[in-house]
Structures are given as C-alpha cells and as structure tokens.
From TrEMBL:
Record family assignment: Belongs to the D-alanine--D-alanine ligase family.
Name of this chain's protein: D-alanine--D-alanine ligase
InterPro entries: ATP-grasp, D-Ala_lig_Van_CS, D_ala_D_ala, Dala_Dala_lig_C, Dala_Dala_lig_N
Organism phylogeny: Bacteria, Pseudomonadati, Bacteroidota, Flavobacteriia, Flavobacteriales
UniProt-listed Pfam families: Dala_Dala_lig_C, Dala_Dala_lig_N
Keyword check for Transferase: no
Known cofactor(s): Mg(2+); Mn(2+)
Residue ranges occupied by any ATP-grasp domain in the UniProt entry: 120-319
Family matches, as HAMAP family: Dala_Dala_lig (MF_00047)
Principal subcellular localisation of the protein: cytoplasm
Amino acid sequence: MKNIAIIMGGYSSEYKISLISGNVVYQFLDKNKYKAFRIHIFKEKWVYVDANDAEFPIDRNDFSVNINGAKQTFDCVFNAIHGTPGEDGLMQAYFELLNIPQTACDYYQAALTFNKRDLLSVLKPYGIKTAASYYLNKGDIIKTDEIVQKLGLPCFVKPNKAGSSFGISKVKTVAELPIAIEVAYKEDNEIIIESFLDGIEVSVGVINYKGEIIVLPITEIVSENDFFDYEAKYEGKSQEITPARISEEMTQKVSEAAKRAYEVLKMKGFSRSEFIFVDGEPHMLEMNTIPGLTTESLIPQQAKAAGISLEDLFTNAIELTLN
C-alpha cells in the first residue's frame, strides 16, 4: 500500500479553500490502494494531522514525520495547495530536490502559470488570444490617462500572482483606478491591468487521463456580481453551467486553445483555464495548475459530467505521478 501525503493550507489568502480541497481528496482517496496522510503547510508550521487532530511536525530535511517513535516517509505527494508555496513552484522544486513524486506540474510550469503576465506572453506566439494589458510594479508612477487610453473603461485591475480573485477590481471611472491599484498591491507587488472583455466566460479543465490529454466538459460562468469574484466563486453568487451553452464551433475553438496551452507548456496534472469569448473567439485570462477540488469546485463538476468519479480522478493523478 502506497503512502500518500496530501499537502494543503499554504501561505496565501487561499489557505481556507485549500484545506477544504485537501480534505475532499483525503475523503475520496481509495482506501484499499493508499494510506493517506493530511499534511498542513503553514508559514509557522508544517505538520501531519491525524484523525484526532493531533499534530506531528514534519522533518523538512527529507519530508518525513515521526509518529509515536516511528519514522514515516511518503511514496507520493498529492498537492492541494492553492497559491504560494504550492501553486507557484516552490513546493514542486523542493520535492524534485528530495526526489519525491508530486501530482502537480513541474516547478517551472507552476512559476510561469502563477505569473499571469508571463504566462500570457509565452502563449501569445502560439495563437492564444488575450485581453489588451498594462503592467505595473510597486513604486512605478501611475499614469492613469495612459492606462485608460490603452485599455479603455471599464477595465480590470488584478494582482499578477494571486488566486481566488483576491485583490481584483472592475474599474468603471478614472477616479477608481488608483484605489483599485492600492487594493491589488495588498496581494502582490506586481499588477496587471486588462481591458474589459464583454462576452461569455467559460472555464476549461484539461487533465492527463490514463496517459491521454483530454479536455473535460466546459463550464459556463454566469456571475451575479460584476465578475467571477470570490463571492461568486465560493459563496454561491454565480451560476456554473456544465456543459456550457455555447455552439459546437465555440466549444471546439476553446477546447483546442486550452489543450494547446497544456501541451505547449508541457503541463502535468490538472489545469483549469478561464476564457472569455469576444466575437466568437476565446481570449485566455489565466491558467490554474492547482484548481479547487472542493465538491463545489469546477474540476470535480466537469469530471462528473465526463463520467469520472472523484475517486477515479484522484487515483488517476496519483497513478500517473507514480508511473
């Protein structure tokens, strides 16, 4: 029986969602095949949490844990950390150095996709369309007129490297721009400002399933709020419709774009990319490499629509990693 460490938590605003994702993986992992261990990764502590919520510190030298006098090591790590250090390449590089297989993509892909600006720049030459954008680093002079002239209004201000829609604002007037920039700087020292794309928003999951790269049924996002923000994502302020109510041609175009991005970047594990259609053409917003795995999350919804159970989804991720 293989020992699987499910890492969850993290150092960002997304840690609560990650704990839920990690516990879902723990709940649905095939108990006949795997012995699962919940590992909480926080700035102040890395601990194994047992069934009674007792905590045992992780030895970071070899990612082992001493449980009542017995040393426990792991055959594979199931990475369920959204945000840093699980989604930005830090944990991936650490496990690569320790030679422990983990379910997410490699460290370079994680770092690249976590940086919206760099991801979109790399994918552009491959024909993947994006919004017009403007970049700021903390300390840069904010030229509001120049930003508005380039992008128009409304526009979106986003932290370059943060997830779950933390720090994102939709800006409708010039006066709101500096305030939105301040909000985004609370999450990150780099900002991406994008033109508003008015169209149908979809989320596209791509996974390697039994050795073949497949696109899962597409989800259409209909937000009650101005955009698919934290409330819309996690507090029911949106409708998520799977499969999306889009034409065959649109489905094909966005599936091809999402799959091309996965292949071009040499991705592994799960990826979930968000697109908005403008004049029938999909424009990529971002790619998540450790998407939510809560029962409400999009990848589990899409897998279900494809006839893949959560147990199958998680077993597949581990088996591909081990082989």
